[in-house]
Amino acid sequence: MVPMFKTNAPQDLEELEERLSCPSAALVNEMAQIEGDILFLGAGGKLGPSITRMAKRATDEAGVSRRIIAVSRFSNQAAREQLNACGVETVAADLMSSEQLSALPDAANVIFMAGHKFGIANNPSSTWAMNSYLPGRVMERYSDSRIAAFSTGCVYGLSPLTQGGAIESDPLLPTDEYSMSCIGRERMVEHFSKVNQTPATILRLNYAVEMRYGVLVDIASAVFTDQPIDLTMGYCNVIWQGDANAMALRSLALADTPAFAINLVGPELLSVRRIADSFAQIFGKEVRFTGTESPECLLTNGNLCQQVFGYPQVPVQAVIEWTAEWIRSGGQTLNKPTGFQVRDGKY
Questions:
Q1: DSSP letter string over 151-176?
Q2: How far apart are alpha carbons 330 and 326 in whole angstroms?
Q3: Which residues, other chains included, contact 278 with Cβ-Cβ below 8 Å and sequence gap of 6+?
Q4: What pLDDT was estimated at residue 7?
Q5: What's the rounded Cα separation, in Å, for the pair 324 and 278?
Q6: What pLDDT does 6 receive?
Q7: What InterPro entries does the annotation carry (predicted)?
Q8: Worst-scoring range by mean pLDDT, 97-106, 236-245, 270-279, 326-335?
């Protein structure tokens, strides 16, 4: 097995993809214990390709025979072909179609990743349909499966910095339609987990980062191009996407009835100002700031996550240095800002 953490930055897309999909020893051990196929719903998003490849690699290294199946619309045919080349089965389907959802393969394990965030201000009904209605349909369709459903730390709303981030037992306090629709997702998972005795985990992710996308890319790109950094959302959480992938797959073993919720997050509460200063020092730039740090931010506490899964294998300082080198060398990005500065849910 190739170690997940190397000190040098990924040099190209091939090496980046290799690292994002490299399974940890703990994951390989758990993949040997979990029975049945694994089905990924909404596998065409930012995490989907790397987590499905990781599941395939971990399964092979565990010496287990199982199907790894990725479901997406697959508007990008090249992405589908790349997954097929890795031994991942792919199914093109619209999950909002009752007929297509019903026709999907059965699987003992389901990773539910579909959701809608950006553009909610212009199309809120579509967001509610994807984030609240669809999860209920999936829970009914796969009532005999073990399910890990991605959610978001946005369900907690803003929390005081002095609190150290929201913990799993804190009340969910939505402040906008996006966070309300995500609570709708969680409530559907919880409801059908109880009614049908379907084991489930709810993964409140906040935020996964890699070289092409994420909070660190947003900040690094702004510093590199001499754009000001808004400090109003002055603190954040991040976690290397490869670590988030491994933890999400390992969470299948935690699935329970009623559904078990856990923050999928790194251990640190990070200062946006300090992150920007780090990039400015690496780039040899002067960084400009606007606004002042609010005492309340979108923050989650990772204590339970680290107790269950251990600390991330890739430390955040390494990701900062890798991101700086990637941006400075003109590495490809997805050109999709995260909107982590948004405080009103209007993404």
A1: EEGGGG--EEGGGTSB-TTSPP---S
A2: 6
A3: 320, 324
A4: 77
A5: 9
A6: 67
A7: Epimerase_deHydtase (IPR001509), NAD(P)-bd_dom_sf (IPR036291)
A8: 326-335
Q: Can you say whether the dihedral through the CA atoms of 58, 38, 190, 123 is positive or negative?
A: positive
Assigned token pair, 263: 């923050």
**CA nearest 152: which of 109, 189, 185?**
185
Sign of the CA dihedral with 263 first, then 265, 267, and 268 last: negative
Question: What mean pLDDT is predicted for residues 103-111?
Answer: 98
CA distance 318 to 339: 23
- Dist CA 287 CA 277 (whole Å): 7
Q: In Å, how far from its chain's centre is CA 189?
A: 18
Domains in the chain (CATH in brackets) are 13-211+240-267+299-313 (3.40.50.720)
Number of helices and strands (H, E) in the chain? 13, 15
Question: Which H or E run includes 301?
Answer: none
Coil, strand, or helix at residue 213?
coil
pLDDT, residue 345, reads 62
Cβ atoms 184, 131 nearer than 8 A: yes
Neighbour count for residue 284 (Cβ, 10 Å): 7
The chain-wide mean pLDDT, for the chain, equals 93
Would the CA dihedral through 317, 322, 328, 330 be positive or negative?
Answer: negative
Widest CA span in the chain: 58
Beta bridge pairs of residue 300: 166
